[in-house]
Design goal:
single chain; 142 residues; mainly alpha; 8 helices; 80% helix; 0% strand; elongated
């Protein structure tokens, strides 16, 4: 008979699912705005120094949609998280180059990334064991 550790609790898994669901919802909204593409998206592209073409906006929307879909499904969630981390890192670099405000623009991709990984780690006990072996091992031993 095994004792279920706090790292494997249903509350932690559900918290992870809720956090991941909110991240997915936000990223799907962002992708859909790029796929349409809405006028603010084209204006933002121009302000960030990119060509103000609908093709670029749609290309980014498709890329974001595919990465988000990979993250949403448990079997491919790790790959999706890695790809989304790269995508969000690119957004940070773009806002840094554009000289946008630190806390509201530049680090926003980082905030989403922290939520993305936090949700994934909370909903996946095997991934927690792999990424945080010291923490998972200590809690399992008690």
């Amino acid at each position: 008979m095994s004792i279920q550790s706090s790292t494997d609790s249903p509350a932690l898994r559900w918290s992870g699912r809720i956090i991941s669901g909110l991240v997915v919802a936000f990223l799907l909204l962002d992708a859909s705005m790029k796929l349409v593409p809405l006028a603010p998206v084209i204006e933002a592209q121009r302000a960030l120094g990119f060509a103000d073409t609908t093709e670029l906006a749609r290309g980014l929307g498709v890329l974001l949609l595919l990465c988000t879909a990979l993250y949403a499904f448990p079997a491919t969630a790790l790959l999706g998280a890695i790809l989304l981390t790269g995508y969000l890192g690119g957004t940070i670099a773009i806002h840094l180059r554009a000289g946008n405000p630190l806390l509201t623009h530049m680090l926003f991709g980082g905030y989403i990334g922290v939520l993305l990984w936090g949700g994934l780690l909370a909903r996946s006990a095997p991934l927690r064991t792999l990424v945080l072996p010291g923490i998972a091992g200590k809690e399992r031993a008690t």
